[in-house]
Amino acid sequence: xxxxxxxxxxxxxxxxxxxxxxxxxxxxxxxxxxxxxxxxxxxxxxxxxxxxxxxxxxxxxxxxxxxxxxxxxxxxxxxxxxxxxxxxxxxxxxxxxxxxxxxxxxxxxxxxxxxxxxxxxxxxxxxxxxxxxxxxxxxxxxxxxxxxxxxxxxxxxxxxxxxxxxxxxxxxxxxxxxxxxxxxxxxxxxxxxxxxxxxxxxxxxxxxxxxxxxxxxxxxxxxxxxxxxxxxxxxxxxxxxxxxxxxxxxxxxxxxxxxxxxxxxxxxxxxxxxxxxxxxxxxxxxxxxxxxxxxxxxxxxxxxxxxxxxxxxxxxxxxxxxxxxxxxxxxxxxxxxxxxxxxxxxxxxxxxxxxxxxxxx
Length: 361
Prior knowledge:
With 361 residues, the chain is mostly helical. Helices cover 69% and strands 0% of the residues. The protein has helices at 9-13, 21-46, 49-64, 74-87, 104-117, 123-143, 147-157, 165-177, 183-187, 190-208, 212-223, 228-233, 238-260, 275-303, 313-326, 331-337, 345-359.
């Protein structure tokens, strides 16, 4: 890390220090910003919203204090800004740019583009995440009923290059359908975007190595004999985890590539697949997000066979509250946190679609 090797303990506390205070502050600010980024990544990966919000304020304050981003801090700053915007990606009322038309995810896309320019590796993961952000920008507008705005943002997102054409054509067809539940949007969901960002964060943290402040704090804790058992329990075999997850990640990335970048002969307007095929695809995505929870709920549903059960007004209220809290598409999370009787995540999705049609008249 920049500045870490050359700063002695004496320089840090100012005792007999010949280094100008401004330079000392700059080094400390570097450490603090990287530590804040590390905390943002960790809490984003664990889904800890309160902790993420706290470190978001710290990171934003440090970034705002920069008159110019140092070259060695560009990736850190871009990643902080990216995560902050993706965390608010489903809220169109939140604005990060002076132009009120720019949604949080569209703003996030600009920082993702900047991150891509700073790296020469991970081309495939970069492409997957870029496509997911682009698709979700459109999806969020459609889920909120803003089809005109979705068409307008499509023009801002894509150039006329041939490489962009397949996805641009598919999204244009989806917007014309005015159906936010088409397979493309359901498969390339906000939840999948979060999952891919966690993959990127893991690689980013490995590349960065252990943060200087964490190293210093760990040595302090170990020297004083504090929390040694806890530190031992935190040990993780990264290589073992990588081997266990590699096959699943590669399969998902190949699936994404086949849909967003088909061969020339496969380029056709988006079509609604048969319900059974779409249902299988949606269930596969949800299982990858929360397999154990879905299996438990699915087991309860099978106990009652295929008997249809009327929706009560209380269940409708629970569903609307869940969508308001977690967003459209997060059916597994809504199912777990809501008070539903013998329902599955697919039932929640179908009921929400029915409620939307009823409200539209």
